[in-house]
Design goal:
Blueprint (H helix, E strand, L loop, with lengths): L13 E5 L4 E4 L5 H11 L4 E2 L1 E2 L2 E2 L6 E4 L2 H4 L3 H11 L12 E4 L16 H8 L3
Antiparallel strand pairs: 1-2, 3-6, 4-5, 6-7
């Protein structure tokens, strides 16, 4: 069977835009003031996007995970909204939010964020 996260169907601004697979849009999920704060805080910290295997030819963007001081700008309220939308999803089941920027000619193609075989895969599976 399919394993999908449960959604709060009454979440403000939530609208299903495609049935199969289910695709949702949340209007106003990231208010303009929070978006500006994330941009102001995160953009100066952007670095070439990486996966667990290092730099990936399939992911040529610049990005930064919103951890530590960067998250203090507004990620706590963002994560609280994510938890409400996904009916109390524990923080331990979430990846840290991240900012990504794609410039002219950059792309996002199929890639693996973690190794697919070997001891590195086992280490990745053991992460909380």
């Amino acid at each position: 069977g399919s394993r999908r996260l449960a959604l709060d169907e009454d979440f403000p601004g939530l609208r299903r835009v495609h049935a199969s697979p289910p695709v949702y849009l949340v209007e106003g999920f990231l208010p303009a003031a929070e978006c500006a704060a994330l941009t102001r805080t995160g953009v100066p910290l952007l670095l070439r996007s990486r996966t667990d295997g290092g730099v990936s030819a399939g992911r040529t963007s610049d990005s930064i995970f919103l951890t530590s001081g960067c998250a203090d700008a507004c990620a706590p309220s963002l994560l609280a909204r994510v938890r409400r939308l996904f009916l109390g999803l524990p923080r331990s089941r979430m990846e840290e939010p991240q900012l990504a920027r794609y410039g002219a000619g950059q792309r996002y193609t199929e890639h693996y964020d973690t190794p697919t075989t070997g001891p590195e895969l086992e280490q990745a599976r053991d992460r909380p």
